[in-house]
Design brief:
The chain contains 9 helices and no strands. It is mainly alpha-helical. The longest helix is centred in the last third of the chain and has 36 residues.
Length: 240
């Protein structure tokens, strides 16, 4: 069941406070979801650390953790509207949205594998244009990561098909690049902090990142809705 965007009471001034209250109210659920996500990411992490096969690790992360992330977006998004969600609904969402989640994140998987392949072909002293191509490919991969975050959230919360969710995700990413940079910076800081602290702090990465990513998507959707409403009002005034 999709949510109504009008039920989300959030704006630029209350974004951080709204998200912090959401994290506090859903702390137990977010901790449980973070534990499950980290558990299912472990096979991909093990492959990457022990064999260095990033494409295989990315494939393992694509097949299960990505659909699981998508399913966990549903209760967090509904909590942003003041509604609760049972774990049975989360399980149902996982199975019903599994194919769409894989298709939505497929461009990111391909871009990541292409970047890894290009980076491995650089050699010890590559020409400048090869290095520039690898850097550009990395930039595209990071943009696709943010697009995928937005798309998966909108897909599960607003019941959108794959193509439209990707189109809207790309539109939000390109229209408000500072938000995209903020999400990437938050991800890097969380990973760096967990790496330095160690232990169970790795659970904080999905538990904190997902609420901020979801509320950022909802905030940008509200911004876009206001812009469309304002543009519609201006066009009506000009026609009169």
């Amino acid at each position: 069941m999709s949510i109504r965007l009008e039920d989300v009471r959030i704006d630029e001034r209350t974004y951080v406070r709204f998200t912090a209250e959401l994290i506090w109210s859903e702390a137990l659920r977010l901790a449980a979801q973070g534990l499950l996500l980290i558990t299912f990411v472990l096979p991909a992490w093990w492959v990457m650390m022990n064999s260095g096969h990033v494409p295989v690790a990315a494939l393992l992360a694509w097949l299960l953790p990505v659909p699981l992330w998508t399913a966990f977006c549903y209760p967090v998004g509904r909590a942003a509207t003041g509604r609760s969600t049972s774990w049975l609904d989360v399980l149902r969402t996982f199975f019903t949205r599994y194919p769409q989640a894989l298709l939505t994140s497929l461009p990111l998987l391909l871009a990541l594998n292409l970047w890894v392949a290009a980076a491995n072909l650089q050699g010890s002293n590559p020409p400048w244009f090869v290095t520039a191509g690898v850097v550009a490919n990395l930039g595209v991969t990071l943009v696709l990561a943010v697009v995928t975050l937005h798309a998966l959230t909108m897909q599960v919360l607003f019941d959108l098909p794959v193509r439209r969710s990707l189109q809207y995700g790309l539109a939000l990413t390109l229209r408000w690049p500072t938000v995209s940079f903020g999400l990437l910076a938050l991800t890097w800081l969380l990973i760096l902090g967990a790496r330095l602290a160690g232990g169970a702090t790795w659970l904080l990465i999905p538990a904190l990142l997902q609420p901020f990513a979801i509320t950022a998507t909802l905030l940008l959707c509200l911004r876009g809705q206001r812009l469309e409403t304002g543009a519609g009002g201006m066009s009506e005034a000009n026609s009169k």
